[in-house]
Amino acid sequence: MTKLPIRETVQGLLKLQDTGESATLLGIGPMSKNCVQATLELSKEDDYPVMFIASRNQVDLDELGGGYVNGWNQFTFAEAVKEVAEEINYDNLYYLCRDHGGPWQRDKERNDHLPTEEAMKLGKQSYVGDIEAGFDLLMIDPTKDPFEVGKVIPLETVLERTVDLIEFCEKERKARHLPEIGYEVGTEETNGGLTSTETYETFIKQLQEELGKRHLPMPTFIVGQTGTLTRKTEQVGHFNFKNAYDLSQMAKKYGVGLKEHNGDYLDDVTLLEHIPAAITATNVAPQYGTEETRAYLNLAKVEAKLVEYGLVSDPSNISETLLVKAIESERWRKWMVGDQVKLTVDEILDGDVSLQEEILDIAGHYTFNDEAVKAEIDKLYQNLSRHNIDGKRYVIDHIKRPIRDYAECYNLKGTTSRIKNLSK
User: Fold this and answer.
1) Chain segment 96-130, per-residue pLDDT in tens
2) What Cα–Cα distance (Å) separates residue 258 from each residue in 11, 126, 236, 261, 301?
3) pTM
4) What phi, psi does 63 have (nearest 5°)?
5) What are the boundaries of each domain within the chain?
6) Which of 1, 47, 89, 176 has a CA between 20 and 30 Å from the CA of residue 213?
7) What is the CA radius of gyration of the chain?
């Protein structure tokens, strides 16, 4: 089928909001190939478009440090998604999207306090990789400035860098004679983020003016703060329906969709509110990684039962390996609260078991590409397979459950057909 540009899909969603058939798209963090397969299977089964939203820490050029997800760069990531699509005879719309692209968006770049010029250069280099690999949407996010810690980054600075980066990307895209791509701007961060309708409209107006001067396209999405916030493995924010609705109407006035970030672990009531709030899309990432970790731990418990029954004599060590590697990764620090952030790896390994398990729940997915972890998963699968349990199938189906919950509440079933019918 001919692939609709993401801009046309979003324009279709904005039109559907006026027909009573509105839907909210899902942007899914591609935490593993299993997650990619779970996502594409549901998209195929229920006829709706999906977005894979990869951060620079997850997927990036090898020369910039690569990504922690499967060691993917933009090209191997695109190829992996394509392989899964072909394996399952996928026939719907998936979009490869850059989440939080731009300067200082790799942890190392920010921690090293790279000078602005160097950070911008690396951010641009990464975008070129995105463009050449066929990404459909680029998030332009120049708000992670290590020199403005604790301060609100001036809107003028964000605007100037945003327009400069869109201009750069468009120039690189056209030079390669590639099809149009969409852009996402703004940030969910409350520090420098677009939280109020006044700030939001000011930003959109100024952006429209500056982009117009340079004959550049308006973005497909503008991120707005709806009150969502993910910490540990919980939704600790407070969804603000009025703010979400006001922001969505403001964006729609300019032909742009409102994008919500930090949409993990939302309850059904909040999910259902997204339709009347006219939120065009939500990003969900760590939740699906956590669900995959939990799936492996469930399988490990089954394996332990088989050992107990005398059916398995050489069990895997998946639970312990995942636990140690998750703690050693230190990537859990991003999600923790209070003084726990300051604990050393040794203090955690020698300390409270409940904290260890909490960190495993939070950070297990950061280790899926570790050779030792992969070896234990293979051994786990083999032990279960001898007793007619398809471990990989279980993992994929387990990840599908929360994705399906969101898709149902977001009225996504049949969305691709509804959008196409609009253009007939």
Assistant:
1) 999 999 999 999 999 899 999 999 999 999 999 99
2) 12, 25, 21, 10, 42
3) 0.95
4) -70, -15
5) 6-285+408-422, 289-398
6) 176
7) 21
